[in-house]
Amino acid sequence: MSKYHYVTVNPSDYAIVFKNGEIIKEGRGFRFFCTPRIQYVIIPGNVKNITFVADQISKENQGVEVSGFAIWKVGDPKKIYQSFDFKMENDTLEQVSTFLKDVVESAIRHMVANMTIEEVLRKRGTIILQLKRELEYISEQWGIVVDTIEIKNVKIQSKTLFENMQAQFRNSVRLEAETNSIETERQIEEQRIHIGDQTKIIKQQSEIADRERKKQLQLQEINDRSEVLKHQREKEHTREKEEMTRKWDLFREEEEFKRNKMLEQNQTIAEEEKLHELKAELDLKKKQLEVELEKYDIAIEKMQVEIENLKKDHRVILAENLPAALQNLKIERLDLGGSTLDNIIEAIKESFGK
To answer: Tens of pLDDT along 118-168?
Structure first.
């Protein structure tokens, strides 16, 4: 085989790959490349079968041969690798089978030595369970699993003893058969005596069962009706609830509309009242202005009267003082019209005012 090659591990086998003495990969059903620095061990995962035959003297000092088989397989590849040398894996598994066979036969001999022949013949299941318990420790240590142990045959080596046991067994079987026959006839007679009562009891039980069945049917019918009524009531309740909800929504909408309308009306009334107040206030101010205007008119009229009076007074004063003034001005006679006189008076007033 080439030093450089690929190795394929079967799905049922377990491989452990080493490099420089350390595990670099392990598992089932994979492929790896092997070099001179890599070592590996492939542990088969198929089941193994061993047969065993154990000769031993029983408790009565009679020779007994127990034969059977066991089926085992690798449970923990690491433990079995550590416990056995797998340079040649097939020979190693055969060696494990040989060791396991020796252990099983030794355990059987130990058990048979403490049992009677009858116990060996009748208690095969007990022997198998005891074997499995005793193999648990070894299986755990070796990393194997014992799936099945079966005892195929138990042979008494003394022919005479075997025939005597057979005769004793035949007599026992015959006695048991006759006893069973008598007992059967007695039981049949008892059955005949009580068959009438049993029939009556069965009939009564049948009638009771019928009544109970009718009662159950009636109860079921009542329950069905109750469920239907309950469903109808739930639907009606749901419908009523929806109707009440709809009416409540309508009521809320109407109330909201009324409230908004009332608010609008109140707002309109408030605005009208405010307008009335403003109008009353304007009327009051108008009246006050009219009174003030009336006062102003009266004052103006009064002032006009006073001005007229002042005008008249100035004319009178001027007329009284005019001759002296004319005399001072060296004017003997002055004849002026009324309007001209007024203009002169105004001019004089302005000069006096200045």
So the answer is: 888 888 888 899 899 888 888 888 989 998 999 998 888 665 544 545 445
Domain ranges, residue 135:
46-157
Interior/surface letters 35-74, b for 16+ CB within 10 angstroms, e for the rest: eeebebbbbbbeebebebebebebeeebebebbbebebeb
170 found inside a domain: no
Instruction: For the full predicted model, state whether its pTM sits above 0.70.
Output: no
Domain annotation covers residue 78: yes
For residues 7 and 38, membership in a common domain is answered with: yes
Burial 172-201 (b: 16+ CB within 10 A, else e): eeeeeeeeeeeeeeeeeeeeeeeeeeeeee
- Written as six digits, the tokens of 204 are 């009564």
For residue 114 the two structure tokens come to: 């403490």
66 in any annotated domain? yes
Which residues lie below 8 Å from residue 55, measured CB to CB, with a gap of 6+? 63, 64, 65, 109, 157
